[in-house]
C-alpha cells in the first residue's frame, strides 16, 4: 500500500487495500518486486479458451528509483515468466498524458492499438497497448 500511495492517486488507478489483498491472493495474478519495494508489477493471466495472454495490471516504481532501469527489469522478468507459462502476448493500458510511460512501453516493444475515451475518468483517455511475446 505504501508503494501504491507513493506512485498513484485515486485517478491514476490506485489499488484500495481490499483490491490489493484480492490481487495478492488471486491464482490468476503474478507479482514481480524489485529490491526492497523499489518497484512492483502485477500481471493477470487470462484465456479466452483458444489463446492465453498476460495483462499488465499495474506497474509502480517508487519516485526515488525512477529512471534507473527498475521498470525495464520488472517487465523483462515478467515477459520471461509469461513465455514460460505459454502466454503468447501481453496487453496493457496507459494514460494518454503519461508520455514517460508511453516511451518506456514503446522501447520495450509495445504497440499502441486504440484510444480508450474516459478510461481513467471523465476527460482522461487511455491507450490500449499490445506486445507479442
Structural notes for this entry:
It is a single chain. The chain has a single domain, classed as Aminopeptidase, CATH 3.40.630.30. 20% of the residues are buried. It has four helices and six strands, in the order H-H-E-E-E-H-E-H-E-E. A hairpin with a 4-residue loop joins strand 2 and strand 3. It is of the alpha+beta class. The longest helix has 15 residues. It starts with a helix and ends with a strand. The protein has a six-stranded mixed β-sheet, sandwiched between helices.
Specify the overall morphology.
Answer: globular
Order of helices and strands: HHEEEHEHEE
Structural class: alpha+beta
The CATH class, by name, is Alpha Beta
Helix content: 25-40%
> What is the first-to-last residue Cα distance?
30 Å
Total helices: the number is 4
Amino acid at each position: 500500500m505504501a508503494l501504491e500511495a507513493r506512485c498513484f492517486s485515486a485517478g491514476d488507478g490506485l489499488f484500495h487495500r481490499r483490491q490489493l489483498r484480492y490481487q495478492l491472493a488471486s491464482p490468476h495474478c503474478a507479482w514481480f518486486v524489485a529490491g526492497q519495494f523499489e518497484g512492483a508489477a502485477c500481471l493477470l493471466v487470462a484465456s479466452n479458451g483458444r489463446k492465453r495472454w498476460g495483462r499488465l495490471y499495474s506497474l509502480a516504481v517508487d519516485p526515488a528509483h525512477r529512471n534507473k532501469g527498475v521498470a525495464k527489469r520488472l517487465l523483462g522478468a515478467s515477459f520471461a515468466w509469461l513465455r514460460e507459462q505459454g502466454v503468447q502476448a501481453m496487453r496493457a493500458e496507459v494514460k494518454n498524458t503519461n508520455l514517460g510511460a508511453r516511451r518506456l512501453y514503446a522501447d520495450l516493444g509495445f504497440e499502441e492499438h486504440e484510444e480508450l475515451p474516459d478510461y481513467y475518468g471523465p476527460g482522461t483517455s487511455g491507450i490500449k497497448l499490445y506486445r507479442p511475446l
